User: Fold this.
Amino acid sequence: MVSQGKGGGGSRNLTVTLRTAKGRKVASTRWLQRQLNDPYVEEAKRRGYRSRAAFKVGEIEEKYRFLKPGVIGLDLGAAPGGWSQIAADRVGSAKGKGQVLAVDLSPIEPLPGVQVLTQDVSANKAPAAIRAALKGGRADVVLSDMAAPATGHRSTDHLRVVALVEAALDLAEDVLKPGGTFLAKVFQGGAGGELVAKLKRFFGKVHHVKPKASRKESSEVYVLATGFRGGA
Assistant:
Protein backbone atom coordinates (compact mmCIF):
# COMPACT_ATOMS: atom_id res chain seq x y z
CA MET A 1 0.00 0.00 0.00
CA VAL A 2 1.28 3.46 -0.86
CA SER A 3 0.16 6.95 -0.04
CA GLN A 4 0.85 10.08 -2.05
CA GLY A 5 1.98 13.04 -0.01
CA LYS A 6 0.76 16.52 -0.78
CA GLY A 7 2.57 18.26 -3.59
CA GLY A 8 2.00 21.19 -5.84
CA GLY A 9 0.83 20.79 -9.40
CA GLY A 10 1.24 17.52 -11.31
CA SER A 11 2.01 14.02 -10.17
CA ARG A 12 5.77 14.48 -10.47
CA ASN A 13 5.71 16.62 -7.34
CA LEU A 14 3.92 14.00 -5.27
CA THR A 15 5.83 11.98 -2.70
CA VAL A 16 5.09 8.27 -2.50
CA THR A 17 5.32 6.78 0.99
CA LEU A 18 5.24 3.04 1.61
CA ARG A 19 2.96 2.38 4.59
CA THR A 20 3.46 -1.37 4.83
CA ALA A 21 6.42 -3.51 3.93
CA LYS A 22 4.36 -6.60 3.02
CA GLY A 23 7.12 -8.99 4.02
CA ARG A 24 9.95 -6.87 2.63
CA LYS A 25 13.04 -6.15 4.70
CA VAL A 26 13.47 -2.60 5.95
CA ALA A 27 16.38 -1.98 3.56
CA SER A 28 14.30 -3.22 0.62
CA THR A 29 11.40 -0.98 1.61
CA ARG A 30 13.68 2.04 1.80
CA TRP A 31 15.21 1.22 -1.59
CA LEU A 32 11.77 0.89 -3.18
CA GLN A 33 10.61 4.17 -1.68
CA ARG A 34 13.73 5.94 -3.03
CA GLN A 35 13.02 4.49 -6.47
CA LEU A 36 9.40 5.63 -6.41
CA ASN A 37 10.41 9.19 -5.46
CA ASP A 38 13.53 9.49 -7.63
CA PRO A 39 13.10 11.93 -10.56
CA TYR A 40 16.02 10.29 -12.38
CA VAL A 41 14.21 6.93 -12.37
CA GLU A 42 11.13 8.54 -13.93
CA GLU A 43 13.20 10.44 -16.48
CA ALA A 44 15.18 7.31 -17.40
CA LYS A 45 11.92 5.52 -18.16
CA ARG A 46 10.70 8.48 -20.22
CA ARG A 47 13.88 8.51 -22.33
CA GLY A 48 14.08 4.75 -22.67
CA TYR A 49 17.32 4.37 -20.70
CA ARG A 50 18.03 1.00 -19.18
CA SER A 51 18.89 2.57 -15.79
CA ARG A 52 19.17 5.89 -13.98
CA ALA A 53 22.95 5.34 -14.01
CA ALA A 54 22.90 6.62 -17.59
CA PHE A 55 22.58 10.14 -16.22
CA LYS A 56 25.74 9.72 -14.12
CA VAL A 57 28.06 8.92 -16.99
CA GLY A 58 26.23 11.45 -19.18
CA GLU A 59 26.85 14.21 -16.68
CA ILE A 60 30.53 13.33 -16.22
CA GLU A 61 31.04 13.11 -19.98
CA GLU A 62 29.42 16.48 -20.59
CA LYS A 63 32.02 18.06 -18.31
CA TYR A 64 35.13 16.19 -19.48
CA ARG A 65 34.20 15.27 -23.09
CA PHE A 66 35.87 11.88 -23.53
CA LEU A 67 33.18 10.18 -25.65
CA LYS A 68 33.69 12.01 -28.92
CA PRO A 69 32.36 10.83 -32.31
CA GLY A 70 34.40 7.89 -33.62
CA VAL A 71 35.77 6.88 -30.20
CA ILE A 72 36.13 3.19 -29.33
CA GLY A 73 34.67 2.59 -25.88
CA LEU A 74 34.76 -0.43 -23.58
CA ASP A 75 32.04 -0.64 -20.90
CA LEU A 76 32.85 -3.16 -18.14
CA GLY A 77 30.08 -4.49 -15.90
CA ALA A 78 27.69 -2.97 -18.41
CA ALA A 79 24.37 -4.67 -17.54
CA PRO A 80 21.64 -3.59 -17.95
CA GLY A 81 23.20 -1.16 -20.45
CA GLY A 82 22.53 2.41 -19.30
CA TRP A 83 26.16 3.56 -19.66
CA SER A 84 26.48 1.82 -23.04
CA GLN A 85 23.41 3.67 -24.30
CA ILE A 86 24.99 7.04 -23.51
CA ALA A 87 28.33 5.95 -24.97
CA ALA A 88 26.74 4.72 -28.21
CA ASP A 89 24.88 8.00 -28.61
CA ARG A 90 27.97 10.14 -28.01
CA VAL A 91 30.43 8.20 -30.20
CA GLY A 92 27.89 7.62 -32.99
CA SER A 93 28.31 3.84 -33.11
CA ALA A 94 24.71 3.30 -34.25
CA LYS A 95 25.66 5.36 -37.33
CA GLY A 96 28.78 3.35 -38.02
CA LYS A 97 31.23 5.57 -36.15
CA GLY A 98 33.57 4.22 -33.48
CA GLN A 99 32.50 1.28 -31.35
CA VAL A 100 30.93 0.50 -27.99
CA LEU A 101 31.71 -2.93 -26.52
CA ALA A 102 29.61 -3.82 -23.47
CA VAL A 103 30.99 -6.61 -21.28
CA ASP A 104 29.19 -8.33 -18.42
CA LEU A 105 28.76 -11.77 -16.93
CA SER A 106 25.00 -11.22 -17.08
CA PRO A 107 23.26 -11.19 -20.49
CA ILE A 108 22.42 -7.76 -21.92
CA GLU A 109 19.45 -7.23 -24.21
CA PRO A 110 20.49 -5.85 -27.63
CA LEU A 111 21.02 -2.10 -27.90
CA PRO A 112 21.48 -0.01 -31.06
CA GLY A 113 25.16 0.60 -31.73
CA VAL A 114 26.33 -1.63 -28.87
CA GLN A 115 28.27 -4.87 -29.29
CA VAL A 116 27.72 -7.23 -26.34
CA LEU A 117 30.24 -9.70 -24.96
CA THR A 118 29.01 -12.02 -22.20
CA GLN A 119 32.17 -12.52 -20.23
CA ASP A 120 33.42 -12.61 -16.63
CA VAL A 121 35.78 -9.63 -16.47
CA SER A 122 37.89 -11.36 -13.81
CA ALA A 123 38.41 -14.54 -15.86
CA ASN A 124 41.90 -15.28 -17.16
CA LYS A 125 40.62 -15.38 -20.73
CA ALA A 126 38.84 -12.02 -20.47
CA PRO A 127 41.65 -9.74 -21.76
CA ALA A 128 42.19 -11.82 -24.91
CA ALA A 129 38.45 -12.07 -25.59
CA ILE A 130 37.99 -8.33 -25.15
CA ARG A 131 40.97 -7.42 -27.35
CA ALA A 132 39.63 -9.75 -30.05
CA ALA A 133 36.24 -8.00 -29.95
CA LEU A 134 37.63 -4.45 -30.04
CA LYS A 135 38.37 -2.82 -33.38
CA GLY A 136 42.14 -2.89 -33.71
CA GLY A 137 42.34 -4.58 -30.31
CA ARG A 138 42.43 -1.24 -28.48
CA ALA A 139 40.04 1.22 -26.83
CA ASP A 140 40.10 4.99 -26.41
CA VAL A 141 37.95 4.86 -23.27
CA VAL A 142 37.39 2.20 -20.60
CA LEU A 143 34.32 2.63 -18.40
CA SER A 144 33.50 0.60 -15.29
CA ASP A 145 30.37 0.86 -13.18
CA MET A 146 31.05 -2.53 -11.59
CA ALA A 147 29.98 -3.05 -7.99
CA ALA A 148 29.97 -6.18 -5.83
CA PRO A 149 26.80 -7.10 -3.88
CA ALA A 150 26.96 -5.46 -0.46
CA THR A 151 27.56 -7.71 2.54
CA GLY A 152 26.78 -5.03 5.13
CA HIS A 153 30.32 -5.26 6.51
CA ARG A 154 31.94 -1.94 5.62
CA SER A 155 35.55 -3.11 5.43
CA THR A 156 34.67 -6.22 3.42
CA ASP A 157 32.54 -4.24 0.99
CA HIS A 158 35.31 -1.69 0.52
CA LEU A 159 37.87 -4.41 -0.27
CA ARG A 160 35.54 -6.00 -2.79
CA VAL A 161 34.98 -2.68 -4.56
CA VAL A 162 38.72 -1.96 -4.65
CA ALA A 163 39.32 -5.41 -6.15
CA LEU A 164 36.82 -4.67 -8.93
CA VAL A 165 38.39 -1.28 -9.68
CA GLU A 166 41.83 -2.86 -9.79
CA ALA A 167 40.56 -5.57 -12.17
CA ALA A 168 39.08 -2.87 -14.41
CA LEU A 169 42.34 -0.91 -14.28
CA ASP A 170 44.37 -4.00 -15.17
CA LEU A 171 42.19 -4.45 -18.26
CA ALA A 172 42.48 -0.76 -19.09
CA GLU A 173 46.27 -0.96 -18.97
CA ASP A 174 46.08 -3.88 -21.39
CA VAL A 175 43.73 -2.36 -23.99
CA LEU A 176 43.87 1.45 -23.73
CA LYS A 177 45.48 3.49 -26.46
CA PRO A 178 48.05 6.12 -25.41
CA GLY A 179 46.17 9.23 -24.30
CA GLY A 180 43.12 7.15 -23.35
CA THR A 181 40.61 7.65 -20.53
CA PHE A 182 39.56 5.44 -17.60
CA LEU A 183 36.39 6.03 -15.56
CA ALA A 184 35.39 3.75 -12.67
CA LYS A 185 33.06 3.73 -9.70
CA VAL A 186 34.61 3.65 -6.24
CA PHE A 187 33.15 4.12 -2.75
CA GLN A 188 33.87 5.44 0.74
CA GLY A 189 35.48 8.75 -0.11
CA GLY A 190 37.11 7.68 -3.37
CA ALA A 191 40.04 5.58 -4.48
CA GLY A 192 42.58 4.62 -1.81
CA GLY A 193 46.14 5.90 -1.70
CA GLU A 194 47.72 2.91 -3.42
CA LEU A 195 45.17 2.95 -6.23
CA VAL A 196 45.53 6.71 -6.76
CA ALA A 197 49.32 6.35 -6.83
CA LYS A 198 49.00 3.64 -9.49
CA LEU A 199 46.62 5.77 -11.54
CA LYS A 200 49.01 8.70 -11.40
CA ARG A 201 51.82 6.50 -12.68
CA PHE A 202 49.83 5.52 -15.74
CA PHE A 203 47.73 8.63 -16.40
CA GLY A 204 48.43 12.33 -16.77
CA LYS A 205 45.51 13.53 -14.61
CA VAL A 206 43.32 11.89 -11.96
CA HIS A 207 40.03 13.35 -10.69
CA HIS A 208 37.38 12.30 -8.20
CA VAL A 209 33.89 13.14 -9.46
CA LYS A 210 30.46 12.85 -7.85
CA PRO A 211 27.74 13.63 -10.40
CA LYS A 212 24.46 15.21 -9.32
CA ALA A 213 22.64 12.07 -10.48
CA SER A 214 24.43 10.13 -7.72
CA ARG A 215 22.24 10.15 -4.63
CA LYS A 216 23.53 12.45 -1.88
CA GLU A 217 23.31 9.72 0.76
CA SER A 218 25.30 7.29 -1.40
CA SER A 219 29.02 6.83 -0.71
CA GLU A 220 29.71 6.22 -4.39
CA VAL A 221 32.08 8.49 -6.26
CA TYR A 222 33.87 8.08 -9.57
CA VAL A 223 37.55 8.23 -10.38
CA LEU A 224 38.40 9.69 -13.79
CA ALA A 225 41.90 9.26 -15.16
CA THR A 226 42.91 10.87 -18.45
CA GLY A 227 46.03 10.88 -20.61
CA PHE A 228 47.04 7.22 -20.48
CA ARG A 229 50.80 6.91 -20.80
CA GLY A 230 50.74 3.52 -22.45
CA GLY A 231 52.21 1.49 -19.61
CA ALA A 232 54.95 3.96 -18.67
